[in-house]
Amino acid sequence: MKPVLYAVGGAALATALIISCSDDSPTDADAAACECPAAEPPVPARVRTSRGLDGTVNANVTGGAFATCPAGAKFLSGACVVDDPSVNDIQLWQFRKIADQEGFECTWLSHHPAPQTVHAEVTCLVP
Question: What is the model's pTM?
């Protein structure tokens, strides 16, 4: 009997505490006025993809391209793109975040007889 009495008493006390601390009365403020800063824009509106300058990869050598985020932005991800999708004899040899920068670097090795145009892209979170 005591456990039931304790449970009912505890529930009643908790209910009274919640009601007294937050009664949603229009004349009573539950907390001091909020001095909050302006809200940031939603995250999807702050994600931007930027294309770096074109690079050229000549036959049987490596070549690369890089892209960097705008000033103040944070690097999220990167991509390496061959501009002519029909070319299938070029290999992505290396890709990495550029150390100490908000950017991305790509290196390709081409076995195609003609020079190939490539570029890197970055996706960044802008302030």
Answer: 0.66
Rounded to the nearest 5 percent, the helix, strand and coil shares of the chain are 20, 40, 40
Q: Is residue 117 part of a domain?
A: yes
Q: Which residue segment(s) compose the domain that 83 sits in?
A: 45-125
Contact between 115 and 56 (Cβ < 8 Å)? yes
Output DSSP code: residue 59. Answer: B
For residue 74, what are the CA distances in angstroms to 70, 97, 104?
8, 12, 12
What are 23-59's pLDDT values in tens digits?
A: 455 555 555 566 667 777 788 889 999 999 999 999 9
Q: Which two tokens stand for residue 16?
A: 């009274």
Phi-psi region of 72 (alpha: psi -120 to 50; beta: other; left: phi over 0): left
The residue assigned the tokens 């890089």 is: 66
Instruction: Let me know if residue 57 belongs to a domain.
Output: yes
Radius of gyration of the chain (CA): 29
Q: Which residues contact 21 (CB under 8 A, 6 or more apart)?
A: 30
